[in-house]
# Entry
Amino acid sequence: MNDNRRYERFETSWSVDYASGDTFLFAYIQNISEMGIFIRTERPLPIGTLLTLRLAPPNEDVLELRGEVVWINPIKLRESNPNPGMGVRFTDFDETQRERVVELVRTIAYLRQHGEH
# Structure
């Protein structure tokens, strides 16, 4: 994931459905970059898990992408951990999907720069 740190991440709270095999879950994206997302969850999936993601940006059509869990921040018993979840890197982008993600990230960046949320 270190290579992906060069992509600026932006806070968001879009809903996301994700599936891996027979596991189907609903959560919220905490942040997004051009290459991936952080999904806030108290039950992160193991590193290497392949996912089908359905992102639901406000006022936009649902965007379906593939991703892979590349890092996790698990719940830590008896320790403060206000940010449990998993980092997911997008995989198998086609050009249309990539352009749409880049446009969504740029829109968030523009809104943040101009004080809109």
User: Anything to note?
Assistant: Helices lie at 95-113. The chain has one domain: 7-113. The domain at 7-113 is CATH 2.40.10.220 (Thrombin, subunit H). The two ends are 27 Å apart (CA to CA).
